[in-house]
Amino acid sequence: MNQNNTVETIIGAIVVAIAIAFIVFAYRSTNAGGLGGYEITAKMARVDGISVGTDVRLSGIKVGTVSDLTLNPNYLVTVHLRIRNDIQIPDDSSLIVTSSGLLGSSYVSISPGGNDTMLKDGGQIRTTQGSVDLMGLVGRFIGGSGGANQQPQKPKPNPPPANNPPQNPASNLPKGE
After folding, report:
1. Which domain holds residue 10?
2. Global pTM?
3. Are residues 53 and 119 in the same domain?
């Protein structure tokens, strides 16, 4: 009976050790502990599809996350981005909200500029493009408004004025001809 308890204790310790190793691996691989680095901001009109924790990518590589979204009194959204310390972003860079595909998740993409001056903690990206309403575009395409295969409408003729009778073109000729 004492032998049985020892085996169960060893197996239990192995299971607990594997569970702890899995939790540490998941914690490190998802950056759940928070991403160190510096914060930059951008003001955008539309941020559909992004939220706190959304990826920030540079050339397709994750370099940070969205740390906060705040609505300003002028209805623009200030997007707070937490960028890794080892990534330097030129101050003339641009930012766009895009998606991985038609059904993919949205992310924030930074297109680096060419300036030698880099953004510092608290800096702001000034050139932005908000998200595009893909479902609205698909609905307009399916609904036929503005589609390329749509037949042009023929203009309707103007009706003659009600108080003037139609004139005969021959009556406008001078008499004697």
Report:
1. 1-30
2. 0.59
3. yes
